[in-house]
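Hey, weird one. I pasted the Response regulator transcription factor sequence into the form twice and got a warning about non-standard characters only the second time. First submission, copied straight from the form history:
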Amino acid sequence: MTSLVICDDQGMVRAGFRSLLESEPDLEVVGEAANGEEAIEVVTRLRPDVTLMDIRMPVLDGLAATRQLMEAGIGTSVLVLTTFDLDEYVFEALRAGASGFLLKDAPAEELAAAIRVVAAGDSLLAPGVTRRVIDAFVRRGDTSTKPVDARLGQLTPRELEVLGLLARGLSNQDIGQRLFVSEGTTKTHVSNVLTKLHLRDRVQAVIFAYENGVVTPGEDQS
């Protein structure tokens, strides 16, 4: 059973999500919070497997709450809930430690599937999401003068290639097809990349790749 806490300042939104999720046999909503401060208290106390986190909330926003939960090592996976007009916050949410994000108007089955993905320790980063992360990265300004992280030198040429494809939002299956290797081999490469770079998941790998020039904004994503 996957335990959940829903953090959103709108009671109707929380009630709607609770109603949708409680119909799933493997998901259990164990708590709710109406602002970032409450979110930290409730999540710290209940330690759910997954926290659904709104970004714009009073007292303390979802970005700050996510950052504090990650720094405290609570062990919950944060799935950020957002709308298209909040895209400028997505990059910062991922940097803060969120495992991915989902649009608030996503269908119920998509929400449940996303929760299962992050509960399993993976990240939710579809190609379309990656493009929006890249857009946010571009808006942050040029970081080309930033020194390249020394950890990059630990990767083999093939692992560097995998990192580049991963940063474009390709799935393990897509990467395997592109490199003519099995999906299992791809998983091994991705795991080695994350281990060598000391990164938690694919989301952090995407950010790392763009910050260190492995791929560049505006590059062909096909």
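That's the output from the first submission. The warning seems to come from a hidden character in my clipboard, not from the data itself. The longest strand covers residues 27-33.
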